[in-house]
Write a structure and sequence with these properties.
Elements: E1 7-10, H1 15-23, E2 29-30, H2 42-51, E3 56-59, H3 67-71, H4 73-98, E4 103-107, H5 131-143, E5 149-153, E6 156-157, E7 166-168, E8 172-173, E9 176-177, H6 181-190, E10 195-198, E11 204-205, H7 206-210, E12 218-220, H8 222-226, H9 242-247
Parallel strand pairs: 1-2, 1-3, 3-4, 4-5, 5-10, 6-9, 7-12
Antiparallel strand pairs: 8-11
């Protein structure tokens, strides 16, 4: 369990945010609603930090459904780029005011990579394949201006809520069950690692991954999925998570059943 400190969680109502809260690993966590903390409003962020200066931040809040940035890129800019910039700016101001660094965990995406060949390392070129990926990469740029940060590039799913009835046998990723990530975040929150890290499972087709949790799942092809979409999807977004495996070596709860 992470040490007791005031942790600001953004995006607490989302799938990952809910998993973080439910994990019980963050006893000092506060997860304000959008009404109580609108990250797109710079003054609201500044007021919140002055009233309750956090000692650590887990930034999950984002426009995450890929179709939304395509239909409304301004909304994605506001939430994923400007909202992140507001948090970063106020983190820097608070650190200067209190003469103490704030640990900043930013949840990014495997969508910052091209999504064509897979096995992406952290040092590989970041050329997103859709507007969602570009908006998250914009957030990464701001986070890199901090002194005590960790950018987690990942992708996750909820095994208890697989809504689709078919998945592609030729579309690959390293997606993780959402309940794994709070453990990883708690570990990275207390570590002194600075920089960007891929946190993913093994390369696997979406069909093979999801059918373990939904046996009724039907098989299809990549072309069947992307045919009528208004945005691009990765064919192979798998991650090389060697750095993560080395960093977390010896932590039994972080070992993935491959």
């Amino acid at each position: 369990m992470s040490e007791q400190r005031i942790i600001l969680l953004t995006g607490g109502s989302g799938n990952l945010g809910q998993a973080i809260i439910a994990s019980g690993r963050f006893p000092g966590i506060m997860a304000p609603s959008h009404e109580n903390l609108d990250i797109t409003n710079e003054k609201a962020v500044a007021d919140f930090f002055r009233k309750t200066p956090p000692e650590a931040i887990i930034h999950c809040a984002a426009v995450v459904r890929m179709v939304e940035p395509e239909n409304d890129p301004v909304k994605a800019i506001d939430a994923n780029i400007i909202g992140t910039c507001n948090l970063v700016k106020e983190t820097i101001r608070t650190e200067k005011r209190n003469k103490k660094t704030i640990r900043f965990i930013y949840i990014s995406t495997d969508g910052v990579y091209p999504g064509t060949r897979g096995n992406y390392f952290e040092r590989d070129l970041t050329i997103p394949y859709n507007k969602y990926g570009w908006s998250k990469l914009g957030g990464e740029c701001a986070v890199n201006l901090l002194s005590n940060f960790c950018i987690i590039r990942t992708s996750f799913f909820n095994p208890r809520n697989i809504k689709h009835d078919s998945s592609a046998t030729d579309k690959y990723s390293s997606r993780l069950p959402v309940d794994y990530l709070p453990q990883a975040i708690a570990f990275l929150l207390r570590e002194d690692f600075i920089g960007t890290i891929n946190v993913g499972g093994k390369r696997e087709s979406e069909y093979d991954r999801y059918r373990k949790f939904k046996p009724s799942l039907k098989a299809c092809k990549y072309e069947d999925i992307v045919g009528n979409l208004s945005y691009k999807l990765a064919r192979d977004a798998s991650l090389n998570s060697f750095l993560w495996q080395e960093l977390s070596k010896g932590e039994k709860e972080l070992e993935l059943d491959e």
